[in-house]
């Protein structure tokens, strides 16, 4: 699953992002509208007053100043507050003849044509759109439209816009708070569970949300991780208990031996015999430790740097040859059927150890005059198997999954030498090689299959 | 032989020093890396026993590497509490000649040290070696005892060859396991002893003096001395 990399998502980021996007959308909507409104209104208004002025200019052409004065008088009412149209007709000597302005206003452009200006009418500033026409004989005509009557509309528009903006921001803030609260409840659930786990309640799990949302994936992954952690911790506890248990025996023996020596002070000969026995006790303890360390080393996956091309069949033949004299001594037939080379990528040192453990196991349990068969073959293109089969007591089916656990000693192995780590090491080596240790019933006896991958799957481990 | 021991643990140092002195060696001792380095470069030693974990967080391997880069070829046995095949390989790669994991039996240390001293003494590869009336021809893979040919399997020959090269020296089971079979684990069975007794059957049985002897608590020795 490929994920697009997004900036870190917090409720605040989402809210700010939402607000910004909304404001941009609002501006995209309002900006052109504002522009269109203005240009359009301007054009229409200019057209209106221009056509007005032409009409009046024609009237002047036809009927002279009197006709025009009469027409204007009939058009405008005295006041001009709120009046849409301003008209002023001036005689050449600057006397007002008609119109609703008291006199020629200041600040007008000094030429004919259209334009806009701000003038004072009744002591108030007004923005106007105007047309100035110079008629014949120095008569002047000013027609303007008062822009202020649109101020209200514009104000409304601006207020509306601001209101929308505020609503957007408010919505973003509220949404942010709500999202934050929802996330917090979720995260709180996670952190409460995690806190419980930190306190040692390892069996606690995160609640999976019913609606398959984004957090479900996270929850699932975290729960899987917790399963693994619990498994490992339980494993560690089991191992610690087992170590304590397994080491207690040789250590108590050792202590008793030394104590007895110190109390009874026997003769020199006996003292040395006891010391030798004590050294043997210590050696046993050391063996257990070494096996454990080796197991930890293999399990950590750091051993992949010893991987080379190995001929598994040759390796199996050599291990068989190595143990052949021991089998001979116990009157056990050790049979290895060579089948030609079987190449795989692996660690020869560890594979030899794993195979050695399997053969030693078989030697331990095969009866006098029994038989052990070792074979190697390639069932699939990417798998190589080494089989070690014996005709001993075998392992009961319900015990099989447990014998690879550290220190687990099956019923039949009680009272036999060994520390109960042999099969754990084999299993760990198999895992390191991308395979597994499989145990089958050989009817009678055990058929152990060490399965390894021909080439380990892309080095996911160290 | 003149030996240098670089080891910070007082008890281990005392124990090793005493053992080596009793075995007839002269031992200088340094309890930290700096002194160890100083001794190693300023005096000629026949071999050095180097602990890996030294005070001040110094790894003994760094000293070994520095010595090797300085052209010093003295045989070095590395002691380490790190028991991993990787650590062993690392120890040998950085210039150590052999590697021993703590805790160790003193017999093991002595045997390995003797092997190192011997190796550095006669570098020449001998093609035929004799020990009493036993003759081993390394090239032709032929073995005779008192003039009679002895037939050996290839691996048996390799075992005998190793013993002959280390004649009159104790070789431990671990040394045999590592050097003859190239295995690095503790067998739970007495498989090495069985191999030795099979070899004994062939080279000692029916001849006058046994050459292949068991050394209690340590290992084996091929010798014609009384």
Task: Please name the defining characteristics of this protein.
A: 462 residues, 8 helices, B: alpha/beta, Rossmann fold, Arc Repressor Mutant, subunit A, 2 domains, five-stranded parallel sheet, 41% helix, Response regulator (chain B), phosphorelay response regulator activity (chain B)
Helix coverage percent of chain B: 40-55%
CATH level-1 class of the largest domain in chain B: Alpha Beta
Strand element count of chain B:
14
Distance between the termini of chain A: 24 Å
Main beta-sheet annotation of chain B:
5 strands, parallel
Largest sheet strand order of chain A: 2-1-5-4-3
Number of domains of chain B: 2
Global geometry of chain B? elongated
Principal-axis shape of chain A: rod-shaped
What's the pLDDT, averaged over the residues of chain A?
80
Radius of gyration of chain B: 19 Å
Element-level helix/strand string of chain B: EHEHEEEHEHEHEEEEHEHHEE
Question: At the fourth CATH level, what is the homologous superfamily of the largest domain in chain B?
Answer: Response regulator
The biggest beta sheet of chain A, please?
5 strands, antiparallel
Q: How confident is the prediction overall: mean pLDDT of chain B?
A: 88
Secondary structure blueprint with pairings:
The complex is a heterodimer of chains A (462) and B (226).
Chain A: H1 11-75, E1 85-90, E2 96-99, E3 113-121, E4 124-134, E5 140-146, H2 151-198, H3 214-264, H4 268-299, E6 308-311, H5 312-329, E7 333-337, E8 343-346, H6 348-365, E9 371-380, E10 383-390, H7 400-403, H8 422-432, E11 436-441, E12 446-453
Parallel strand pairs in A: 7-9
Antiparallel strand pairs in A: 1-2, 1-5, 3-4, 4-5, 6-8, 9-10, 10-12, 11-12
Helix pairs in contact in A: 1-2, 3-4, 4-8, 5-6, 6-8
Chain B: E1 2-6, H1 10-22, E2 26-30, H2 33-42, E3 47-51, E4 53-54, E5 58-59, H3 60-69, E6 76-80, H4 85-93, E7 98-101, H5 106-121, E8 128-131, E9 134-137, E10 142-145, E11 148-150, H6 154-165, E12 171-172, H7 173-181, H8 191-203, E13 212-215, E14 219-222
Parallel strand pairs in B: 1-2, 1-3, 3-6, 6-7
Antiparallel strand pairs in B: 4-5, 8-9, 9-10, 10-11, 12-14, 13-14
Helix pairs in contact in B: 6-7
DNA-binding region (chain B): 126-224
Pfam family, one (chain B): Trans_reg_C
Modified residues (4-aspartylphosphate) (chain B): 51
